[in-house]
Write a structure and sequence with these properties.
Mean pLDDT: 92
Strand content: 25-35%
Radius of gyration: 16 Å
Number of helices: 5
Helix content: 25-40%
Order of helices and strands: EEHHEEEHEHEEH
Structural class: alpha+beta
Shape: globular
């Protein structure tokens, strides 16, 4: 993927669990990443987690780049097999998504919205994707606002082993309608 945004070009590449682990470790243990639930993770924990994802047939991780520099993490997954098994009835074409923007001392206005928009464009670039599903923590109001900005509609609270989550969906049509003014 390569998307030109208001903040510049955003691209993704497959995540390399070993080469990217140190950088990822600094992101997921940062206080701003509390909802990622890896605050106490050691470097080896991050390596193991992303090696597990890399080996998984239905879960994928990507490093996001802004002007060629790593600035965000994107994960996609098949909710029939990962994260949401038994918690809702998946429909054909459902794709799960997680994203994390790297912490920075110099925030760029609109950057996180540009990232989630680019992530959604990447997911919908696959014609088989009909709907994107997310399950953020119910207390993560910042991500709820971002999700709403790109067309997600919350449907229900669900209880996962690690959190109470707000199950939300975004169809291709909802995404296109929500982002039509930002193109």
């Amino acid at each position: 993927m390569s998307t030109t945004t208001a903040v510049g070009p955003l691209t993704v590449r497959p995540l390399d669990p070993m080469a990217d682990a140190e950088l990822l470790h600094s992101w997921v243990t940062h206080p701003k990443a509390a909802f990622w639930m890896m605050q106490d993770a050691k470097l080896q924990d991050v390596e193991r987690e992303y090696m597990r994802i890399a080996a998984h047939e239905h879960h994928h991780a990507f490093m996001g780049l802004h002007d060629g520099e790593p600035t965000f993490l994107m994960e996609s997954y098949d909710p029939r097999y990962v994260e949401l098994v038994g918690l809702y009835d998946p429909e054909p074409g459902d794709v799960g998504m997680h994203f994390l923007v790297a912490p920075t001392d110099r925030p760029v206005h609109g950057f996180t919205l540009a990232v989630i928009t680019a992530v959604m464009r990447e997911l919908f670039a696959d014609p088989a994707t009909k709907r994107v599903v997310v399950e953020p923590d119910v207390g993560n109001s910042a991500v709820h606002r971002l999700n709403e900005a790109v067309g997600f509609v919350p449907t229900e609270k669900i209880v996962k082993p690690e959190k109470e989550a707000l199950l939300s969906f975004c169809t291709r049509e909802q995404f296109e309608a929500a982002t039509a003014v930002t193109r």
